[in-house]
Amino acid sequence: MTAALDLHDVTVRRGGTAILDNVSWTVGDQDRWVVLGANGAGKTSLLQIASARLHPTTGTADILGERLGRVDVFELRPRIGLASAALAERIPPRELVRDVVLTAAYGVTGRWRETYESHDTDRAHDLLRLFAVDRLADRTYGTLSEGERKRVQIARALMTDPELLLLDEPAAGLDLGGREELVAALAELAGDRRSPVLVLVTHHVEEIPPNFTHGMILRAGGVHVAGALADVVTDEHLSSGFGVPLTVSQTDGRYAARGAR
Ligand SMILES: Nc1ncnc2c1ncn2[C@@H]1O[C@H](COP(=O)(O)OP(=O)(O)OP(=O)(O)O)[C@@H](O)[C@H]1O
C-alpha cells in the first residue's frame, strides 16, 4: 500500500532559518499519529506541508502517492481534510452550522447559490451527529461555544470523505468537559478502520485520544523522536523534547504529564 505521507529530508527555510530541518517521516495507510512539540517547534509548518499548502525548500514530500511540486495541488487538497485555527477564522459567524459543513463539498466557506445533492445534505447531517452537534444544525456558527465550534470544524474537514485528516490543536481553548468530549469522539474515529489516516497536532499529552498508534516529537524544526506511541511518550523523550524534566503516566490508554520533582 502507498504511504499516506512520505517525507524525505524536508527542509523549509524562512529568512535564513530552517523552520523545518531535514524532516523524514512516513505515515502508513492505517496510522493515527500524534505530533507533539514546544511552541515554535514546527508542528503547524509540518501540517502545512502535509496538507499541500506549503512546499519544501529542499527534500521531497509525497502525499497520498503524489509528489508535491509535480501534482496539481487543487486536485490533491480535496483528498485531505484539515481543521486548523487559521481555517476556522474564515468561517462566517452568520453561517448556519449545517452550511458550515455542507459548503466543504465545494471547498468554500460561506454559502452562496450552490445547490447541493441530497446525499451531501445527508452526509453533513451524519457528520454533525457523529460529533454530537446535530441539534445545533440550524444555529449560526457565531453563536456556538468554542467546544461546539471545534466539533463542527472537524465534521467540516470530514465532509469530502478525505483519505487523510489533519487536526491542528483541536482541543486548544476547550474547557475540561469539552476536551474530554472531543477526545472521546476522536478516539472513536481513530478506532474505526474506515476512518481516514489521522494526524493530530497537540501541545499536551492529556489530549492524545486512545486508539492513536504513533507519535512524533518535533524540536527546533527537526524530528526529535518518532515511532510507536508508547515508545515516544516517555519521561526521557518528553523531557528532552520540551526541555524541562517531565514525568509521564498512562492509565486506560490516556497519558498525563507533570514536572518531575
Ligand atoms: N513565514 C514565516 N517566516 C518566518 N518564520 C516563520 C514563518 N512561518 C513560521 N515561522 C517560524 O517557524 C517556527 C515554527 O512555526 P510553527 O508555527 O510551525 O510552530 P508550531 O510548532 O506550530 O508552534 P506553536 O506550538 O506555537 O503553534 C516558528 O519559530 C515561527 O516563528
Condensed summary:
The chain has 261 residues and is α/β, with parallel strands linked by helices.
Classify the secondary structure makeup into a structural class.
alpha/beta
Low-confidence stretches are none
The chain-level mean pLDDT equals 92
Instruction: Characterize the quaternary organization of these chains.
Output: single chain
CATH architecture: 3-Layer(aba) Sandwich
Order of helices and strands: EEEHEEHEHHHHEHEEEHHEE
CATH homologous group name: P-loop containing nucleotide triphosphate hydrolases
Q: Which bin fits the share of residues in helices?
A: 25-40%
| CATH C-level class | Alpha Beta
General form:
globular
Count structural domains. Answer: 1
Strand content: 25-35%
- At CATH level 3, the topology is Rossmann fold
Strand runs, count: 12
Report the bound ligands by name, code or SMILES: adenosine-5'-triphosphate
Kindly, what is the distance between the CA atoms of the first and last residues, rounded to a whole number of angstroms?
46 Å
Q: Count of helices?
A: 9
Q: How can the largest sheet be summarized?
A: 6 strands, mixed
Strand order of the largest sheet: 6-7-8-3-9-10
